[in-house]
């Protein structure tokens, strides 16, 4: 029996996932939660084989939670579910050492097969997305630039970003200018849009 933890913040979607997996004779949902912060403690107590994690969770996002699981409970394999099917998002998922990556609009039978594949030790990745990631460009931003842009994307101004990252406001403004230039964006808002669409944020 493959034991699964389901992490999805939308109650109807989580209920549907649990119901779909419940139809499979060889799969049992042993735990479910609605936020990224709950995943690690719940995995410790329920000891699933697979954590099925939505990428966009409140609290810790799904990729951060998956990376934590990989580090602290390496026996729990991770399958990321996403509606954000961008090549950049897939690359971030692979960098977080996830074992599978499936789009939410995949046919229902693909879900159970993906769970079985990950449980068997295979890396399961949506085929179309894998090809798109292969062809797409790498993120031109440094880790620090992404950090600055992520804070800007939630409305922080240069002074607030500077305080958060222990930088001067002038340095943050320079980072933002460089980011806009590197992404060939019109302004900061456009840079955030480009980075999000590419899956870099």
From TrEMBL:
<protein>
    <submittedName>
        <fullName>DNA-binding response regulator</fullName>
    </submittedName>
</protein>
<dbReference type="InterPro" id="IPR039420">
    <property type="entry name" value="WalR-like"/>
</dbReference>
<dbReference type="InterPro" id="IPR016032">
    <property type="entry name" value="Sig_transdc_resp-reg_C-effctor"/>
</dbReference>
<keyword id="KW-0597">Phosphoprotein</keyword>
<dbReference type="InterPro" id="IPR011006">
    <property type="entry name" value="CheY-like_superfamily"/>
</dbReference>
<feature type="domain" description="HTH luxR-type">
    <location>
        <begin position="134"/>
        <end position="199"/>
    </location>
</feature>
<dbReference type="GO" id="GO:0006355">
    <property type="term" value="P:regulation of DNA-templated transcription"/>
</dbReference>
<dbReference type="GO" id="GO:0003677">
    <property type="term" value="F:DNA binding"/>
</dbReference>
<feature type="domain" description="Response regulatory">
    <location>
        <begin position="3"/>
        <end position="119"/>
    </location>
</feature>
<feature type="modified residue" description="4-aspartylphosphate">
    <location>
        <position position="54"/>
    </location>
</feature>
<keyword id="KW-0238">DNA-binding</keyword>
<dbReference type="InterPro" id="IPR001789">
    <property type="entry name" value="Sig_transdc_resp-reg_receiver"/>
</dbReference>
<dbReference type="GO" id="GO:0000160">
    <property type="term" value="P:phosphorelay signal transduction system"/>
</dbReference>
<dbReference type="Pfam" id="PF00196">
    <property type="entry name" value="GerE"/>
</dbReference>
<dbReference type="Pfam" id="PF00072">
    <property type="entry name" value="Response_reg"/>
</dbReference>
<dbReference type="InterPro" id="IPR000792">
    <property type="entry name" value="Tscrpt_reg_LuxR_C"/>
</dbReference>
